[in-house]
What we know:
Elements: H1 2-15, H2 20-31, H3 35-63, H4 66-92, H5 106-118, H6 121-135, H7 141-166, H8 173-196
Helix pairs in contact: 1-6, 1-7, 2-3, 2-7, 3-5, 3-6, 3-7, 4-6, 4-8, 6-7
Amino acid sequence: MLSYFAGLGTGMSLILAIGAQNAFVLKQGILRQHIFLICLFCAVSDALLIVLGVAGMSGFGTRWPWLFEAMRWAGVAFLAIYGLRAFRAAWRGGEALRPQGHVRGLWASLGTIAALTWLNPHVWLDTVVLLGAISAQWPSPAIFGAGAVTGSFVFFFALGYGARLLEPLFRKPVAWQWLEVGVGCVMWAIALRLALG
């Protein structure tokens, strides 16, 4: 169970960062357009990438043991930079949610979220590379991956359906600043844990 909850926490903390994918889900939730299918697409895509990362990393690790160490330090560097970017975004401020007022069709929405998910290098780095590398450090990488997959489903559906509750809050730039500070702290905490082994 420790591996499961570690995967759940790590997976959720990595996707907490408001990037293009999450901002789109948030906007669709606020606009109340195609929420279920958008959330399902994101969660299933994440699950596929997490499984790929967990399975691939464990296979590579048996052939090339040095790979985990290299991936660990690459993950530390990536998370440190990711956290720094979040702190910089918080410092600059000025971000506020301004959803578009026009109605977007289902296929246009799915096409947009597909591009934001599968063509985004950060999604690949977070799910395949980073989660795959972290999972190998736990007693049961598969259970860790199951926790991360659960975290994706919980996060995306909570974000999509909870967005309407956040609408007044995220119209204020200061809310985005606090969110970015929180993301930065989480990223640096994970980087420190990885660095300490």
